[in-house]
């Protein structure tokens, strides 16, 4: 009986325990059902997250274009190759979709991606031996072009697959590379590192979107997937003020000087002095942003490398004297030397001078003594410092590019105050020099340089931001500017003028030369030797009303005994300025009989056949190239009424275009051809066309890829 009671108690206890546990579990289930939460986690949201796939929709980075819409930087698809090596992937053995022939696959792909066949074979075989699903081909298998992908696909090799990824592409190589800058993939996103790519990274980048949907356990989309799409917002397009044709001309010229004289550095800037628009800017050394390996110089020296400018500074000393009413062009002084203080005497570049000469002849001969006398005895040192500050030599020019570093006014000791008048001691960048000179070229108004023209929404085509002309200072009056221009014109035209090498055939020039000593890097004074100078020129044309202003500097060129320091810089200035003004259709103001014969207007060619158009253009003295055999004209590189020069190349595109022989063409002409035909042009190196990827006579279609290698 006692045993039975114990059994009953145990049974009751267990029954009660199970009943309590049931009530607890039932209560818990009821609570979960009612609240839908466990430990603060919403079960519905948790389940949805587990069966929801989400993918990023990558925004297309905005394009960078020149002022006329020529594409300078844009995203293009690149491809990475990989191989499926597992037999399990092929359900149908008669139609395999995995690599079946390692030797053949390795040999045929290696030729296209420029890889070692043995390396590819080793990778494939190792993957097979280790039972891997797929293998990649290393760095050689990444960054493939559409052309390479197409060639591999045409091989029809089983098991070969591709992944696609956008990459920043610069179709013109070194063209304006230190302006455009570089963008590379960083943490999976293309990010601007230098130049405009960095300066306007947020506007160019846009905003990524995403897509999400619900799937089953096997990864298939549900019938009611609750799909959500947030579209990507592509980046804005940025239009620069640079002109592709003038920039190409500058790039070609700098490359020729670089090859011939091998200077340490070259910098050149071309600006519209009325608006502050930079139409061309380049440096050497430069780099190709498509291949940023072993880059010698990342910096844009035109805005970030202050140097002692030398005698180009004298134009501002003279302008200051005129503004103060202290300039008398006919007043004479004793040239040769000038005693600054008990310890310091300065000399003209011709140490014994030219005897007693006028102030006007002094600026023409680039006399240090003349400007030193102006500062010490006419303007006054304190007032001259004020003018240096009025011309903003103590601050940045304010260009809309990253990395600008201003020069420094060195003005502590008596000798420094005097030497600043001829550009020694005090430093400045090319962009500071050309900005200050805009006041002389623009009626006394100094404009802020800018290189961004406008920012445009790629979808709506609406202008998001438009740059405007900004006058940052008025250091001198219009009357002073006009007189200074005339004085500087005489520097080029006078029989004594140091600027004679910079004289143009068709346009008058106002400007000032510079031959600046280079501080000894080992300390103590300046370097010596014929080549150890910064040779420069700051010139404006046409002289009476400048449309363009250009600063060019060449550091330590390797000159022959018979060559002068002005030859490299004059070669750049004359080629770029003369041709740029003609391209802009600026009327020559130095016209003579020769010029009148060489310059003509294109007749009315509208509606003519290709043969008739060719004859009409040849009659103007142009070198005519007809693209294709068609009788109808699709487009031409010149327009009716346009002013052209004898010997200038004209391109006629027919309605049946075929590839012409472009060997010997300049980069400007090749890019013009590509623009007319809407080709995808890739340029390699600089100079003149040497090889072309499309053979002569090949039928051309829109967006055909044309690679052209150039050589000097």
Describe what you observe in this structure.
α9 packs antiparallel against α18 and α11 (314-323) crosses α17 (478-493). The protein is built from 21 helices and 33 strands. The radius of gyration is 35 Å and the shape is globular. 41% of the residues are buried. The chain folds into four domains: 2-50; 59-208 and 228-240, Penicillin-binding protein 2a (Domain 2); 245-293 and 302-459 and 469-583, Beta-lactamase, CATH 3.40.710.10; 599-711, Trypsin Inhibitor V, Chain A, CATH 3.30.10.20. It is of the alpha+beta class. The longest helix has 34 residues, at 2-35. The strands form eleven sheets. Strands 4, 5, 6, 7, 12, 20 and 21 form a seven-stranded mixed sheet that branches. It has a five-stranded antiparallel sheet with strand order 14-13-25-24-23, sandwiched between helices. It has a three-stranded antiparallel sheet with strand order 3-10-11.
What structural class results from the helix and strand content?
A: alpha+beta
Distance between the termini: 119 Å
Overall pLDDT metric? 88
According to DSSP, the number of beta strands is 33
Can you give keywords for this protein?
712 residues, alpha+beta, Penicillin-binding protein 2a (Domain 2), Beta-lactamase, five-stranded antiparallel beta sheet, 21 helices, globular
């Amino acid at each position: 009986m006692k045993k039975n009671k114990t059994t009953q108690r145990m049974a009751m206890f267990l029954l009660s325990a199970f009943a309590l546990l049931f009530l607890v579990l039932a209560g818990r289930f009821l609570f979960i059902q009612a609240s839908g939460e466990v430990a603060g986690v919403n079960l519905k949201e948790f389940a949805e997250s587990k069966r929801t796939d989400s993918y990023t929709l990558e925004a297309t980075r905005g394009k960078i274009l020149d002022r006329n819409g020529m594409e300078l930087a844009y995203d293009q698809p690149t491809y990475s190759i990989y191989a499926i090596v597992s037999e399990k992937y092929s359900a149908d053995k008669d139609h395999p979709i995995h690599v079946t022939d390692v030797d053949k696959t390795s040999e045929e792909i290696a030729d296209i991606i420029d890889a070692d066949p043995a390396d590819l074979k080793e990778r494939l075989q190792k993957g097979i031996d280790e039972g891997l699903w797929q293998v990649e081909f290393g760095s050689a298998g990444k960054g493939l072009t559409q052309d390479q992908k197409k060639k591999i696909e045409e091989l029809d090799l089983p098991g070969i697959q591709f992944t696609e990824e956008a990459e920043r592409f610069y179709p013109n190589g070194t063209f304006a590379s230190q302006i455009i800058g570089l963008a590379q993939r960083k943490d999976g996103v293309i990010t601007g590192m230098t130049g405009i790519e960095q300066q306007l990274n947020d506007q160019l980048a846009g905003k990524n979107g995403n897509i999400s949907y619900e799937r089953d356990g096997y990864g298939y989309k549900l019938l009611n997937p609750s799909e959500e799409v947030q579209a990507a917002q592509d980046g804005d397009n940025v239009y620069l003020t640079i002109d592709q044709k003038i920039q190409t001309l500058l790039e070609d010229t700098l490359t020729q000087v670089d090859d011939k004289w091998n200077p340490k550095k070259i910098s050149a800037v071309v600006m519209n002095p009325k608006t502050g628009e930079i139409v061309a800017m380049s440096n050497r050394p430069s780099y190709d942003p498509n291949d940023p390996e072993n880059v010698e110089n990342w910096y844009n020296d035109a805005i970030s490398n202050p140097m002692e400018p030398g005698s180009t500074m004298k134009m501002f000393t003279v302008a200051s004297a005129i503004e103060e009413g202290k300039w008398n062009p006919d007043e004479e002084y004793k040239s040769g030397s000038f005693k600054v203080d008990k310890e310091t005497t300065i000399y003209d570049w011709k140490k014994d001078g030219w005897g007693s000469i006028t102030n006007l002849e002094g600026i023409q001969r680039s006399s240090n003594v003349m400007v030193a006398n102006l500062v010490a005895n006419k303007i006054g040192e304190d007032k001259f410092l004020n003018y240096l500050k009025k011309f903003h030599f103590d601050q940045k020019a304010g260009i809309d590019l990253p990395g600008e570093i201003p020069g420094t006014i060195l003005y502590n000791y008596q000798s420094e105050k005097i030497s600043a008048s001829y550009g020694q001691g005090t430093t400045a960048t090319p962009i500071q020099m050309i900005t200050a000179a805009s006041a002389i070229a623009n009626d006394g108004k100094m404009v802020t340089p800018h290189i961004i023209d406008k920012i445009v929404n790629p979808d709506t085509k609406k202008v998001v931001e438009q740059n405007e002309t900004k006058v940052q200072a008025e250091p001198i009056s219009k009357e002073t500017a006009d007189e200074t221009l005339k004085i500087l014109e005489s520097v080029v035209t006078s029989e004594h003028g140091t600027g004679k090498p910079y004289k143009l055939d068709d346009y008058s020039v106002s400007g000032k030369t510079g031959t600046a000593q280079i501080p000894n890097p080992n300390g103590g004074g300046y370097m010596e030797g014929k080549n150890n100078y910064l040779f420069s020129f700051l010139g404006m044309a046409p002289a009476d009303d400048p449309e363009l202003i250009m600063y060019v500097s060449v550091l330590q060129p390797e000159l022959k005994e018979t060559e002068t320091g002005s030859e490299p810089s004059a070669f750049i200035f004359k080629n770029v300025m003369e041709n740029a003004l003609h391209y802009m259709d600026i009327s020559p103001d130095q016209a003579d009989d020769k010029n009148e014969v060489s310059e003509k207007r294109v007749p009315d060619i509208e509606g003519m056949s290709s043969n008739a158009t060719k004859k009409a253009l040849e009659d103007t003295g142009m070198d005519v190239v007809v693209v294709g055999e068609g009788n109808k004209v699709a487009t031409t590189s010149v327009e009716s009424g346009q002013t052209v020069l004898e010997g200038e190349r004209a391109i006629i595109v027919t309605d049946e275009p075929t590839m012409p022989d472009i060997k010997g063409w300049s980069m400007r002409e090749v890019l013009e051809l590509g623009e007319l035909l809407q080709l995808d042009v890739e340029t390699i190196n600089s100079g003149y066309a040497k090889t072309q990827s499309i053979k002569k006579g090949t039928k051309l279609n829109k967006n055909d890829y044309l690679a052209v290698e150039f050589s000097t």
